[in-house]
Amino acid sequence: MQWPAKAGVAVISALLVIAVASPLIVFFLEFASDPEHLITLSVSDVKLDPATGNATVVLKIGYSGTVPLKDFTVYMLGENITVGDVVKGEKTIQFSVSAEQVTAGAGGRASVSEVALSFRIAGVYWVKITVKGAVHG
After folding, report:
1. Per-residue model confidence (pLDDT) at position 104
2. To which H or E segment does residue 135 belong?
3. Which of 115, 117, 9 is nearest to 63 (CA)?
4. In Å, what is the CA distance from 6 to each residue of 13, 18, 20, 101, 136?
5. Which pLDDT tens digit goes with each residue over 11-29?
6. Helix %, strand %, coil % for the chain, to 5?
């Protein structure tokens, strides 16, 4: 292979590596600059139905990053909640659980002792985060 061809292959390879790695790099730079606010979860409402023994939970997911998160799933209250794709902004989802799974925290607010998030950064890199004592309504 001639020198110009080798240089061309090297340049194309470098550009491909940069294109594949850049979403991961951007996500972690955004996380490092503001880890408390990049992804936020809050229980905005809990409605108990004594007739069925179930509770309807309204969960707000906020994301301030620029890299889209694909296949976003929240595990809380014994449920896997599929959110789908998350982009910058706020998304509200609603799901039902047994009323026994919802506990009252300080001031009558709903409290969740453990939350796990899983998603793919830009649809490529899988991330799973587990946080204990993280979500309050």
Report:
1. 53
2. strand 125-136
3. 117
4. 10, 18, 21, 61, 57
5. 888 888 888 889 999 999 9
6. 25, 55, 20
Summarize pLDDT for 90-120 with one digit per residue, the tens.
999 998 888 777 765 444 555 566 789 999 9
User: Tell me, what's the pLDDT at 134?
Assistant: 53
Partners of residue 93 on adjacent β-strands: 59
Residue 54: enclosing H or E segment and its boundaries?
strand 54-63
| Per-residue pLDDT at 106 | 44
CA distance 40 to 60: 8
Cβ neighbour number for residue 121 with a 10 Å cutoff: 19
108: tokens are 């009558």
β-pairing, 110-121 with 103-104?
Answer: antiparallel
